[in-house]
Amino acid sequence: MKNLQKLFNPKSIAIVGASPKNEKLGYILARNILSGGWRGKLYYVNPKYSRNKSAYLANLNEIRKPVDLVLVVIPAPFVNQAIEEATLARPKIENFVVISAGFKEIGKEGQKLEEGLENIAKKHKLNILGPNCLGFINPSQKLNATFTQPQFKKNGFGQASGKFKPGKIAIVSQSGALAVALLDWTQNLSVGFSKVISIGNKAALDECDILNFLAADKKTEAVALYLEDIKDGQKFAETAGKIASQKPLIVIKAGKNRAGQKAISSHTGSLAQDEGILEAIFEKLNIVEAKTIEEFQNLILYLNADKIPAKKEIIILTNAGGPGVLASDFIGNSKSLKLLKIPSGMKVELKKYLPGSASVENPIDIIGDAAPERYKNTLKIISRKFAANPLLVILTPQSQTDPENVARILKAYKRKFPAFAAVFMGGAKVKTAAESLRQNGIANFENPEEALSAIEKLAKYNLQKKKAGFIFRQKDIQLKLKTNAIIQSVIQEKRKMLFWSETEKIFKSYGIRLANSISFENLSGINLKKITYPRVLKTDDPKIIHRWDKKAVFLGIQNEKGFRHAFQKIKKTTGAGKFLAQPMAKPGLGMIVGLKRDWSFGPVIVVGWGGTYTEIFKDRVILVPPLTADEIKNQLQKLKIFPILSGFRGEKKYNLDEIAKIVLALQEIVAENPDVDQIDINPVLLYNNGSKYQILDAKIYF
Amino acid sequence: MKNLQKLFNPKSIAIVGASPKNEKLGYILARNILSGGWRGKLYYVNPKYSRNKSAYLANLNEIRKPVDLVLVVIPAPFVNQAIEEATLARPKIENFVVISAGFKEIGKEGQKLEEGLENIAKKHKLNILGPNCLGFINPSQKLNATFTQPQFKKNGFGQASGKFKPGKIAIVSQSGALAVALLDWTQNLSVGFSKVISIGNKAALDECDILNFLAADKKTEAVALYLEDIKDGQKFAETAGKIASQKPLIVIKAGKNRAGQKAISSHTGSLAQDEGILEAIFEKLNIVEAKTIEEFQNLILYLNADKIPAKKEIIILTNAGGPGVLASDFIGNSKSLKLLKIPSGMKVELKKYLPGSASVENPIDIIGDAAPERYKNTLKIISRKFAANPLLVILTPQSQTDPENVARILKAYKRKFPAFAAVFMGGAKVKTAAESLRQNGIANFENPEEALSAIEKLAKYNLQKKKAGFIFRQKDIQLKLKTNAIIQSVIQEKRKMLFWSETEKIFKSYGIRLANSISFENLSGINLKKITYPRVLKTDDPKIIHRWDKKAVFLGIQNEKGFRHAFQKIKKTTGAGKFLAQPMAKPGLGMIVGLKRDWSFGPVIVVGWGGTYTEIFKDRVILVPPLTADEIKNQLQKLKIFPILSGFRGEKKYNLDEIAKIVLALQEIVAENPDVDQIDINPVLLYNNGSKYQILDAKIYF
């Protein structure tokens, strides 16, 4: 793990590319650092202005004192050389932020420069943030090492100083522009942050290095991360899982079509598409996923002001019926939130203070003509018993409402309710009140749905918190020699898929039983007299993937004559050289169980409804190893056909332990056989009459 | 249709309950009317203050001139009497707005008063808006007949006068509080409106009367409607369909669990739940449905400034990569929008003005350091060819950006692009620019997703516009005597379901053929020698609904012995008195086709995938009569199993005309047989080998 303490908390900074011209980034950077209030030693490096004992130095080597951080803003083609030279400085310089653009993002030439930069970082063990980034901000150090700055007061908007407000959320962004917009947005809403870090092209330091740093950062209580690509899924999962077990990690992932996909040939492949995998991984790691910028912002807004909701029973207090109904509708559809049932004793108490037409059911509706006193009395009563529950206070500005006084009352109750949000709906009439809520650290949303969506996601996070989420780690692979020997011999033959008999051996050593079958190449290689009927004949030829489409399967063969006929027919149509004869299985519930190695995150296992309609309904759940039997059975509840598995309309239920056992075996196979890339079991027939499962088809690819 | 011209454009108004005390609604109303700038004759009615030649009258009858509108703000128990008295005034008073609360919303006592009010309206043919409403605003008449008022200037916020801004959108709200919040919100954003109408409890005038008025109102180009309940689905559909064919009708429907539901006993019932029906009806009528308050507001924001997008190919121009990616992600998932492909000639032209690292693909990314000039040049080039396409301009405030000058440039191009929206992301730095966009009539959104969601919904609306949407009308029913005779005799027997033989006769007269079956009551009533095997035996007893669960079906009976055994077994287990013997059908694709009368909207038809998994996957489409064969076949494309219907993996396709024919027959049956309440056809087996469909089970309920 890299030590980034000095990089983000430097006592001395050098700007390579500093400039006295106020349109240059080298000037803007220095101005921002100075006006932000940082108190450290600042060096300006620019050979152009270094003559005549000016404040400018020609080279970093001239500084004979420690330089904790170098900010680089010279044109891209000169960056690598400058950093290489800097490694000669004594004491050694270890931390760089390359703000300069003109790297990977401009095409081939830039790509080359960026590879050079990456190599320099590795060779000299340097921490380099960027290139093509905004820099970073550390408000607790009053350090603004970016080329953006708070808006100074103008037309009544903006701040009096160049300082950003300290807070408890760290913002990490792969888009500099988005970071600029978010920063500007936080200013308007009195939202502070612990760090803002723009990671740019991630040539050396990536999101994982930054997350590792923030996991240990005491000032950071939550992290909000904008990502366009995940460089190394395994590394990301390890870091993200760790941080999410300590503090909420909010991620918005843009760019839904990830590159690097292998062509999809197997059923498992088509069932486990990218977006689904990412969602499953995020869920496993307890990452709070924001689907839109607005959700991202609302989560930040809430966490800036509140604790994570400790309970799922929410209380809603409103002076407006309509918005109350909309809030109820939202909660009615939510899995992680529900409306607290107000106890009857409390209802009696509430009725004392409220008019007859008010509703003391939740949402508590103190109706349109509510003066501030009604809010106060209600909050007082609720707070006695339910201060630990999430609370949402809704207001619309009727003529009797007095939003500013209600805001004052909320301020007094903010201490009592750790998870407390407001929705003051409107515009001009609620502006001053909303401003006062913000200044008193109360999160105020524009409408009930936005507030509830943030609360819901954090309530869900809370359910899993403390349980460190992690996924299967490629580096933990332990080679199993016996099965590996089979696979290696197949690889030498340049096959990409195992024959049935080979698959059978491997599965057997992991406790999976395939349907009783006879493998043979021609009719003389099989004892036809010993075969029972009805029977199935199909090819076992790796070249024929969709056997059904290729007419390479015959079902319900009744006798030897039919068997011979089927054999000749398949041989003639497909030219296959390998065959498989199976007894006809009794009809059962056909399931598919498959494994796929995601190119970035590693293995995922898919369980779904099998048969003809597999790819039509895509009824499947993506399971992320490592898995326990309980976790597998739990996840199976997400299947649409779960009601059938658990006994539909008085039918007997199926044995979920059987599926769990197969899934556990697959995760062992993948952990001990690094060459295995995909496994397709389709179908495995399940029975609810006590019969054991039947696997009719199974393929291992690599 | 009611004439509401005078109600909403009065030349004379009387306030019943006017008051000199400034905390009373009667005072606030008068103040709002006067400060709003309305120039008509205003009468104050209140017997308490009518002595000594004051401005107050004791009674409406004292006014011997025309009173176009009466606003009632006296306590609820006195309202009905006051209106009854007012009917004695000459010239006749016809229009009332009852602002007073204390009716249906407070329980039984209020309900009684409200029924009285409704009766008075009917008896005297009066137009009464409310009760329990906010009143209405007509900005073009400078008339604010509500007890809310614009925020006056204070701390720099609000307006200089009591006038609301005129605009082209009408807001209709069943929640007064929500109307207040919306009005206040519009002020902050320079959004105007043609009318704001609060409909309250809808005792006499309901949403349909108001929509009818707004359909003809030339000042109104779009209607935004907040609804909690739909009083009469048939009437609503007729009105809404008419208005939507002329101007966009945006509806947000709160309160998802509608009352009045019949118990669900049939398959069709469970497949056609309320929310699904509402969605299907809205789609049929081309209503633009907003799912959240935010969507509702964003649609208003867009329509306030723009024309409905005439094309689905959108152009996105951005100085920020991240938000551009998020916009692409959104459009990638959209059915109604796509990214315009920039022609190569235009790309060459754009490249002349843009730096090398800019992207001339759509989204056009003019990158982070873009000065206003770059926006200008790009817009100039695009406008030559694509001014008719929707355009979205994204900006984040980097140090080089100058949002205010970009806003100035956008102002100049606003005329050229009729569907033009901006997303200036941030807070303090974009505040002045955003303000200037608003004042120049450019819709500015907080993030790309919100803007695109509004544009998408309106682009979808545009595709269906002009085509008047309407649904089946109960009042158009024409009794078919022949089938009705069968039904009437069954009703006399107090049965709720037809026997197979009766269903067969009715279906036959509409061209639907049931599977060849023999109905009988005991073995002596059937010629056992003439029966072919394999055969199915089941009950035809209305008491046994889920035959399969009750073990009232035997499949694959091979001979007479088996037939007798099955008969005795079913008789013993179920006590059934009616039986049905059918030949075993060849396996086919099992579908369900059903009909259900929604208690409010009338009949809907459901087509879905049948069999064991029907209720598990709920793969169905809800069709709203009247339907044509083409419309039915079009809608079937929404089924998940549509790929199978249309030929999956080289299989032959199924004959969709057969399903269309059955659906068309059902809609005829329901139109000609008012007692038919539900029809279940489950399964109808379809074949893709040229065989005709087989209906194995069909039930008619009433």
Describe this structure as you would to a colleague.
- Two copies of one chain form a homodimer.
- Chain A is an alpha/beta fold.
- Chain A folds into four domains: 5-150 and 162-301, Succinyl-CoA synthetase domains (Rossmann fold, 3-Layer(aba) Sandwich); 312-464, Rossmann fold, CATH 3.40.50.261; 516-584, Dna Ligase, domain 1, CATH 3.30.1490.20; 589-701, ATP-grasp fold, B domain (D-amino Acid Aminotransferase, Chain A, domain 1, 2-Layer Sandwich), CATH 3.30.470.20.
- Chain A has 23 helices and 29 strands.
- The first copy, chain A, has a seven-stranded mixed sheet, with helices on both faces. A six-stranded parallel sheet of chain A has the order 3-2-1-4-5-6, with helices on both faces. In chain A, strands 14, 15, 16, 17, 18 and 19 form a six-stranded parallel sheet that branches.
- In chain A, strand 18 (420-424), helix 15 and strand 19 form a beta-alpha-beta unit.
- The longest helix of chain A is centred in the N-terminal third of the chain and has 17 residues, at 108-124.
- The first copy, chain A, is flat.
- Residues 257-270 of chain A have low confidence and may be disordered.
- The interface between A and B is large, with 87 and 86 residues.
Please state the average pLDDT score of chain A: 91
Mind telling me the C-alpha Rg of chain A? 32 Å
Show the largest interface: A-B, 87 and 86 residues
Q: Report the β-strand fraction of chain A as a percent range.
A: 15-25%
Q: How many beta-strand elements of chain A?
A: 29
| Unreliable stretches covering 5 or more consecutive residues of chain A | 257-270
Shape annotation of chain A:
flat
Structural class of chain A: alpha/beta
Portion in helices of chain A: 25-40%
Largest sheet of chain A, order of strands side by side?
8-7-10-9-11-12-13
Assembly type of the chains comes to homodimer
How many domain regions of chain A?
Answer: 4
